[in-house]
């Protein structure tokens, strides 16, 4: 332990870059005179890209901080996904906020801080580091949810998110304490020591419950529809893409180390996770069906997708398909991030511009989408691509992701979960296609939307390109995911 | 570049080209689309003439195999056997006709309409050409999207209900097939390649049954087999004419083709176990479809239910598993594509003139529109299987092949099927009588126009095919023969493994050959596959 731990800080480079970016944006706010803040989004994008590049071309791989965190392909993949999510959300946010005269540096600063937490979460191999990362991520997203408090709904959303988030943090922390009691360590690698003891199972379950809040798994999903609907739409996109990816990375690491070496015999903890997966797939889809608000429907859809991802996590515990399952999980997260950001962006573009107080109650109603294909063909086409991807219809990223995850599940002999997964995703087709029906098959209603800003258009085009390309030439990304799936641990 | 790949993706290239054209130049959209589909057809003739139907020729021709997503075992592997070739030809021939028929019928959002049809053509050809299970699935699902838009945007009053039902129904049935495909991947040495999977698949009989069912349900919905047919009358009725023609002409064949290519050869033992169930459902479909057709008041719905009946014949011939039955099924797939396609075109033409599909609105219009009436009668005769038309060859082969097959109580099935043929004649004759003959009561029909030149161009190829395929079936049967022989051989291996004695082929091949000799065709004997008759 002599000398300066250079490697530790080199390893944190992406996080450092994001933090510096956040500070830079905040500083610019202090010295700002003019009202135009378009460059802040640009700064955010630059720092996001730099952080992603730093993760890819990392000078150091391996454990850091006394094995409490690790830098590997897995963490790099997660970092790239969350940074890409940040860049897209920042572009979307620029247009959205300007239209509401609410463009301020805090938005980008908070998003950068939150992303730093997410990237750290992807590296954590220790319960305490994970907790710190969760808090960094969550505090930023709580504030972002409350960023534009016009009317009651955003305040309610932010408050709900804060309270329930605090409970989930408490559960996570309590579970960590129990796990420490059972295994004598907070390192993930040591968790297996306490395996079999009731204390360990209780601890793992509590930790899983804490994470289940973040990934919005049923029955810990109750906050999701309100928060997703109430939060400013670019923030919703950012949460759906980033928080989910980071939390799943954490869950995968914990679950794998807890279940390490137990290929054939499922433990009680596997039972907990598969119970979550079953409930999440069924109820996420069922609850999405009756929604008339497209934003709320997408919120429930994000719950449903957490269910499919949980199937991927479960498959990862089986020796033969571990790498396939992890790679599938990562690919799915990337595909979902691009798709969800895209879909929320379209939703944001259709929102009625602010009256001074609240968004009207029908801001995201299906009727807003009626006849969109005539009024704004490009926007409707983009939305159709995202919806097809969410539904898992080829040739989109969503299809390859689902194929990959269910391939792993079949390989892991989780037949029941795989069958439930495809059947519930067939249910999903119904509510996703309903939006397409409105866009393409109903007469136009209401006034035409003003054109989206250039930044929004760029973000949308990028999201469409990613979704389609990942569906057609998926191989390079799958290779990266596979490399990342062969994680150290 | 591989010719098959070129034929597959040329329509898609057309769709992309169309996307770049200005929005309001409807004339351009129509002509460009027609040009692309005609070019596709011309190139596909190269497949037709280049195909080697001799017994020693490779099973799959025009093959191309490149990696697509190698990291998870998915390849781009395409190739045609004789049956796929026939269906690809049907697709490429039917599409330009459909485009031409829609020149006047579709006035709104012409560009999107044409793009949807072109994407659909690529997906259809791809479905028949694919030799990789995932590639097949991708094309299979890709079909749903343009078809969904075609029905939902350009359909009639109740289109939204019909299109969502169509999509959800077929999608739900297909997802289990995807799981079965993935399961195969883990039990054939880790590949999605169809040819390798067929050789190397190792599953327990129990699992093979489940896999067979997963495939069979996906295909049965598409066929559609009773009782999974309920989406079809709605979709057919609400779709625009072009959509109905494609749906009846090609899409339904994807289901029967799926049985022929995937469900039967991949799991022969399981297929032998379930063949009686399928035969029963097929016969129920034949009779039920015919009876439903008898009571319809809407012409399109009538033709839709007649499809249920006709496809029942195809299924019956498939599970008869005799050379005659299988050959007849393949032939009947083509026939149904041509004659039901032509029926929908004709009904569509009447609809364009009067904007109603109700039979009661017409009556006695033969004097007013003699050419339409003539065409309709010819197509009707083909549909009921009059000797000299294509319909006769197919139905005859299927019924004789079923009667002579080793299917349990085969004569009963064949007899019930024959009753279906009679019912078919009844409802079609009644339809023609009510629409075209008798006194003209409805004054609105006095102003009906007869065929325009364009409509003549739409119908003539169909009528020519009906007669040619009825009189000269040989060239159309020849390509199918090697594929049929291979399937029979595969089943003979399976019955040898099972050790249950012969279950496939015919009881008395001599009768079959004699019976085939009675098919009225100058080029007899029909190139009848005899490989399975033993």
Keywords:
heterodimer, A: 489 residues, mainly alpha, two-stranded antiparallel ribbon, 20 helices, B: 534 residues, two-stranded antiparallel sheet, 2 strands, 72% helix
Largest sheet of chain B: 2 strands, antiparallel
> How many discrete structural domains of chain B?
1
Rough outline of chain A:
globular
Number of helices of chain B: 21
The mean pLDDT of chain B is: 86
Oligomeric state of the chains in view = heterodimer
Order of helices and strands of chain A: HHHEEHHHHHHHHHHHHHHHHH
Q: How do the helices and strands line up, and which of them pair or pack?
A:
The complex is a heterodimer of chains A (489) and B (534).
Chain A lengths: L5 H6 L1 H18 L7 H19 L5 E3 L4 E3 L1 H27 L5 H19 L3 H19 L6 H32 L4 H4 L6 H18 L7 H8 L2 H26 L9 H21 L5 H22 L6 H29 L21 H4 L1 H15 L5 H15 L3 H27 L12 H19 L2 H11 L4
Antiparallel strand pairs in A: 1-2
Helix pairs in contact in A: 2-3, 2-5, 3-4, 3-5, 4-5, 4-11, 4-14, 4-19, 4-20, 5-6, 5-11, 6-7, 6-11, 7-9, 7-10, 9-11, 9-12, 10-11, 10-13, 11-13, 11-14, 12-13, 12-18, 13-14, 13-17, 13-18, 14-16, 14-17, 14-19, 14-20, 16-18, 16-19, 17-19
Chain B lengths: L2 H18 L5 H25 L10 E9 L4 E7 L1 H24 L4 H20 L3 H10 L1 H11 L4 H29 L6 H7 L4 H18 L8 H8 L2 H26 L1 H27 L4 H22 L2 H32 L15 H15 L5 H14 L6 H27 L16 H19 L2 H4 L2 H19 L10 H9 L17
Helix pairs in contact in B: 1-2, 1-4, 2-3, 2-4, 3-4, 3-11, 3-14, 3-18, 4-5, 4-6, 5-7, 6-7, 7-9, 7-10, 9-11, 10-11, 10-13, 11-13, 11-14, 12-13, 12-17, 13-14, 13-16, 13-17, 14-15, 14-16, 14-18, 14-20, 15-17, 15-18, 16-17, 16-18
